[in-house]
Design goal:
By secondary structure, the chain is mainly alpha-helical. The protein has helices at 3-13, 29-34, 39-62, 72-94, 96-102, 113-121, 128-158, 183-217; strands spanning 161-163, 166-168.
């Protein structure tokens, strides 16, 4: 298989496990905790981040050779601000109800640690196509993270899950815990999911190591 295709594939998928922005790197925590009171909120915040991340990664990568190293961070912020303004205007025009809920966290994407981190750690040093795949992969992983956290908090906090016009019915004999819709509920959900992912990854790595040890032992 072509090495470039393998590299592009890894650049896309690494954000889901190895460099998961929420559960491994623990960056972009403000929107993660603030807007994930429902699946729909997490979805639209995630979609916004995907667009901004892909856009900014491409621009940073395309101009990386002419960006002065001393002022690269302010330049990154300018590149990030452009798609954020586009997202904000589109959301105000076509999704006013969602914009009212997400509020200040839409313009705050400009200084989101995830966006700046990918620009600094990857796009500033890699070709355009690799940077695009990195942005799409990290953004989609972030979106899934927000939706999973939102689904758990919404279900435990309200007893049902609603996504647009589709709503899953309430579960009989289940008493919702309103605390799950508050900041402490966000921290609890995030912490539990982080622990579960780390346990799963540790077990997989342990099995891989055990398998390699057996292989060497048979030589």
């Amino acid at each position: 298989m072509n090495k470039s295709k393998v590299s592009l594939g890894y650049d896309f998928v690494k954000g889901f496990i190895d460099e998961n922005p929420t559960f491994k790197l623990a960056i972009g925590m403000c929107p993660t905790l603030a807007v994930t009171t429902s699946v729909i909120n997490g979805f639209w915040m995630g979609v916004s981040v995907v667009f901004v991340l892909a856009f900014s990664n491409v621009f940073v990568s395309a101009l990386r050779k002419v960006i002065p190293d001393e002022i690269r961070i302010p330049v990154f912020v300018i590149f990030i601000a452009t798609p954020v303004v586009i997202v904000e205007l589109l959301m105000r025009a076509y999704l006013p109800a969602i914009y009212d809920i997400l509020g200040i966290f839409v313009p705050l994407i400009v200084v989101n640690c995830l966006i700046i981190h990918r620009a600094e750690a990857f796009a500033y040093r890699q070709p355009v196509i690799n940077s695009l795949m990195d942005g799409l992969g990290s953004g989609m992983a972030f979106t899934i993270n927000l939706m999973v956290i939102g689904a758990i908090r919404e279900f435990l906090g309200t007893g049902q899950i609603a996504f647009g016009s589709v709503a899953f019915p309430e579960v009989p004999l289940f008493e919702p815990a309103a605390v799950m819709l508050t900041p402490p509920g966000g921290f609890i959900t995030l912490g539990v999911l982080m622990a579960l992912l780390n346990i799963a990854v540790a077990r997989v790595n342990k099995r891989k190591k055990a398998g390699s040890d057996i292989g060497y032992g048979n030589c």
